[in-house]
Amino acid sequence: MNTADQYLKTIYVVQQQEDGPASTGSIADALDVSPASANEMIGKLEARGLAEHEKYKGVRLTDDGIVRARDALQTYCIIERFLANVLGVEEFRAEARELEAVIDDTVADRLDTIIDRQPECPDCFDPETDACACLEVATAPVEPEQ
Amino acid sequence: MVSVSVSQRITSDDQLARLLQIGIVLEEVVEARAHHHYQSLDAELDAEIEALLAGAAEESAEHRERLESLIEGLGVDSVPFDEIESLVDARYGRTQPDDFDGVLYDQLCNEETAYKFYDDLIGAIEASDAEFSVDRETLLETLETIREEEAEGVSEVTEVMERR
């Protein structure tokens, strides 16, 4: 996933969390970059017609931006699911964040052929837990009913 | 939301090992799917596609071995093929192509995806100044050879598709 897509995904999630335009500060915090870097990339996204930036209000994705952001979020969800369910990685969130930049959508699509993703993806993504809400992670075995 | 890094570099042995494991899984997917195509269409399979799929499965197995020896050098376990095969089995009914064109197209996607994966991986390693536990030159040479073979695979499948 390239840097622009990582930004689009983050803006999409922040917009949902803030229930309105995403502030540059929140975007920069979420991506762990400086506000200046965030501003620079936001300018590029604006120039490509993927986002609109209104002074003092924040950034809002355009329809095209939303489509790309949702694709990027799906790719992220595939990486998380793949790490958790196929490779059994406990720290799947941290690793997904490390790996997302190196995993392209076409690669994620192929990995998707062996994971069981839900049709509602990426709406099932929960920003609070930074994971898909229907992700089956290893839990303690359920006691059989007597 | 937890903060993320937008770095596209590989910074540790663990991260490199994980990416190599993903490469192994991609190869295992190719191998398992090629094997399924081979079996599901065997009554009517034509010799050219049969040879192509057999060659692809063999090449994937070789790539897998080369990746395995790299991750062994990093002290990490490989990914068991049986598990991947059963996952492919479980999902296969939903994704199975139903004719030769579908089989060839699926194979083309496999080769293109693998090429893209190795190309990005090589780029990320080259952009990194991290010291890995495996020799950097051997690592890059191995991955470049595999990438080259994937590129040849793409041309080979495209050629068959264009001719048919």
UniProtKB/TrEMBL annotation, chain A:
<keyword id="KW-0805">Transcription regulation</keyword>
<protein>
    <submittedName>
        <fullName>Iron (Metal) dependent repressor, DtxR family protein</fullName>
    </submittedName>
</protein>
<dbReference type="GO" id="GO:0046914">
    <property type="term" value="F:transition metal ion binding"/>
</dbReference>
<dbReference type="InterPro" id="IPR036388">
    <property type="entry name" value="WH-like_DNA-bd_sf"/>
</dbReference>
<dbReference type="Pfam" id="PF01325">
    <property type="entry name" value="Fe_dep_repress"/>
</dbReference>
<keyword id="KW-0804">Transcription</keyword>
<dbReference type="GO" id="GO:0003677">
    <property type="term" value="F:DNA binding"/>
</dbReference>
<dbReference type="InterPro" id="IPR001367">
    <property type="entry name" value="Fe_dep_repressor"/>
</dbReference>
<dbReference type="InterPro" id="IPR036390">
    <property type="entry name" value="WH_DNA-bd_sf"/>
</dbReference>
<dbReference type="InterPro" id="IPR050536">
    <property type="entry name" value="DtxR_MntR_Metal-Reg"/>
</dbReference>
<dbReference type="GO" id="GO:0003700">
    <property type="term" value="F:DNA-binding transcription factor activity"/>
</dbReference>
<dbReference type="InterPro" id="IPR022689">
    <property type="entry name" value="Iron_dep_repressor"/>
</dbReference>
<comment type="similarity">
    <text>Belongs to the DtxR/MntR family.</text>
</comment>
<dbReference type="InterPro" id="IPR022687">
    <property type="entry name" value="HTH_DTXR"/>
</dbReference>
<dbReference type="GO" id="GO:0046983">
    <property type="term" value="F:protein dimerization activity"/>
</dbReference>
<dbReference type="Pfam" id="PF02742">
    <property type="entry name" value="Fe_dep_repr_C"/>
</dbReference>
<keyword id="KW-0238">DNA-binding</keyword>
<feature type="domain" description="HTH dtxR-type">
    <location>
        <begin position="1"/>
        <end position="62"/>
    </location>
</feature>
